[in-house]
Amino acid sequence: MKSVLTSGGISNKSIEKELRNVLGRDLNGLKMLFCTTASNYDGEVMNDWLIEDLECCKKLGFQIDVCDINGIGIDKFLPRFEAADVFFFEGGNTQWLRKCIRETGLEEHLNRLLETRVWIGVSAGSIVLCPTVFNSCQDLFDENIEGYQWVDSI
After folding, report:
1. Entry pTM
2. Across residues 33-60, what is the average pLDDT?
3. In what order do the strands lie in the sheet with 2-6?
């Protein structure tokens, strides 16, 4: 699996350069599935940082498909993942994102999909690939979903 894991997205030239190295080709025209699930936990307005990340990806030349996997069936979103060259998992609520990846059935397909695609993670979108999901500020960001501590990675 190839990945670019960040805390703040493609926020500088060195991260952009590494992304180009990992992909091994020009970014212009690549299809990106931009997953907003982690940022949609509270159901509030879209965050400025999410819009900035989306605009950055667009400026880099990606063809972007914005998708929230929560609330739509796997039959609707899996073909969108299969059509993408790159997955961009946005930040937000880590526990919520992990729960949605499992409960929607996406987790069952990720190993196969990531054989030929690159995962770009921002904050929560990076953390969900870790063996456990726990951090010292879960209570601060209202991410302490009772009973959730995963011990296996995606």
Report:
1. 0.85
2. 86
3. 2-6, 118-122, 86-89, 31-35, 63-67
